[in-house]
Amino acid sequence: MTSRTRTLARSAAVLLALTALAALTACTSGTAATKDTSVAASSTTLRAAAGKFGLKVGVAVNTDRLDDPAYAQLTGDEFSTVTPENAMKWGLVEPTEGTYDWTAADKLVAFAQAHGQLVRGHNLVWYQQLPTWLTDAAPKMSAAQLSAILKAHITAEVTHFKGEIWQWDVVNEAFDDNGELRNDIWLEKLGPGYIADAFRWAHEADPAAKLFLNDYGIEDAGIKASAEYAFVQDLKSQGVPIDGVGFETHLDATYAAPDLETQLAKFAGLGLDVAVTEADVRDQLPVSKADVATQSDIFAQTMQACVDVPQCISYTVWDLDDKDSWIPQTFSGEGAATLYDDSLKPKPQFTAVQKVLVKAEKSAPQRSK
Ligand code: 9MR
Fold first, then answer.
1. Cβ–ligand 1 contact at 278 (below 6 Å)
2. pLDDT tens digit string along 260-314?
3. Does ligand 1 come within 6 angstroms of the Cβ of 184?
4. Cβ 138 vs Cβ 189: under 8 Å
5. CA 355/CA 46 separation, integer angstroms
6. Which residues belong to the active site?
7. From the centroid of its chain, how far is CA 236?
8. Measured between alpha carbons, how far is 13 from 64 in angstroms, rounded to an integer?
9. Angle, CA of 198, 317 and 247, to the nearest 5°
10. In angstroms, rounded to a whole number, what is the distance separating the alpha carbons of residues 316 and 123?
11. 68-82 confidence digits (pLDDT tens)
């Protein structure tokens, strides 16, 4: 064998091994193995640009749509974290008491691992999307019974995903718009201590996960943001294992952008991480060119706010594309709230966010690991 044929043989062997490895990765990921040619990652992906200074960019994922190769491709290429839009919520994982169904959530975790992504677990305690076996029985339960059920749920879910979740939204939307704790079954039966308990139980089950309190309507100064700040300060002073506060950031383009940077920095001042967890910017349909420009501007401002606060460790958009967005079902006549249109084409909103990240690549404060 000449040295040239030896080199060729070696190259062929390496190629064969790489092909086998690629095939194996595609199989084990359990997700769409074929590349879709109708969509392409942007020239500079959001995850690559943000990754230069350690910021994670995420997306809320509808796990049913991961079987669509185009959806899966953009989700994997552009984002460095994923949040299950619904798949980890109590009503979905424990539809009957004591019987867990992790199928959809496990599928997303496997997808994330195959694509080098981190997972935001969403959520452990909320007043919505609870199983009916629980909501039906709760009014007749004693505080001790309900507390035991909550502990069992948190322990089971956090234990199932131990080591696989980067950030958990432990308690979701605990506050009402008037700055009071929400008068839901948790507060009514267990009193305000249920929040500290939830964080302690989650921490016991996975000490390495970052534990978040997540809410909407705290992106600007106001009665809700002040109340939540005082509450979190109190949790910290009691030594409750809370690591961060999530700012949902569901915005409406008919209003001015919030002063998000001030709020992020304020909460970070408590020694916490902060994150933008559910960003979208809706508007009345159909949107004009001017509306799109306003939406793009608001998206860019919120991304800039996160970039400028070193403790802001992730920025997640709520739903990949307009077709999937929760907005039209909830706000009649409104929509166009995401970065991609109905056919998965990036919108000017995408370019606006991308521009902020590319510009920040060299100057943004590096996030600590
Ligand atoms: O996007 C989610 C939608 O598919 C569900 O029907 C809805 C149920 O209330 O929840 C949506 O996600 C919410 C998230 O879990 C918490 N913050 C507000 C989000 C939009 O309602």
1. yes
2. 999 999 999 999 999 999 999 999 999 999 999 999 999 999 999 999 999 999 9
3. no
4. yes
5. 9
6. 173, 278
7. 23
8. 38
9. 45
10. 15
11. 999 999 999 999 999
